[in-house]
């Protein structure tokens, strides 16, 4: 059996979220509608530092107390800067299912770290949490995420027509899913 490090990849690592240090970075990211929509429901407008702190504290409390939420910061191995976060939420143990958000703050960091971060997220979901399925939701204009999920063999399961309003237009919300057997097959191809 191959041992894959759980919290450390080739270029990035999963760490706890540091509310004091990470909130200002995420507040800056919240000027991007595609990012802020993954941070809070409802209005998609820039968030204050106070609002971001409150969201992070709520997420951290849910992760510590609920047993259904897991939260990580994404940081490069060689630096202590925040490049993104991974949030597994709404884990339904009886069904072996959960949802996750993978948010990376810049296109440059997305290109450098997203595929590895996604592989780490899937390893965590399937190996550590022993889930059978994971679901991710994005709007149709999130091109980088859309391309990545299609490359790694997520299946488009639901298209909610014009369910997201952003930048003066309605967009489809896409729900992608991956099952454990699909991940196992794809993981073998990645190693080969």
The CATH top-level class label: Alpha Beta
User: What is the domain tally?
Assistant: 1
Radius of gyration: 16 Å
Strand content: 25-35%
| Form type | globular
User: Helicity range of the residues?
Assistant: 25-40%
**In total, how many beta strands?**
7
Strand adjacency order, main sheet: 1-2-3-4-5-7-6
Low-pLDDT residue spans: none
Mean pLDDT reading: 91
CATH architecture tag: 3-Layer(aba) Sandwich
H and E order: EHHHEEEHEHEEH
Identify the CATH homologous superfamily.
Answer: Gcn5-related N-acetyltransferase (GNAT)
Q: Which properties best describe this structure?
A:
single chain, 192 residues, alpha+beta, Aminopeptidase, 6 helices, 39% helix
Quick overview:
The protein is an alpha+beta fold. It has six helices and seven strands.
Would you write up a description of this structure?
The protein has helices at residues 19-29, 33-36, 49-65, 107-128, 143-151, 180-191, and strands at 12-15, 70-76, 84-92, 97-104, 133-139, 155-166, 169-179. 39% of the residues lie in helices and 30% in strands. It is built from six helices and seven strands, in the order βαααβββαβαββα. The chain has one domain (12-191): Aminopeptidase (3-Layer(aba) Sandwich), CATH 3.40.630.30. The chain is globular, with a radius of gyration of 16 Å. A seven-stranded mixed β-sheet has the order 1-2-3-4-5-7-6, with helices on both faces. The protein has 192 residues and is of the alpha+beta class. β3 (84-92) and β4 (97-104) form a beta hairpin.
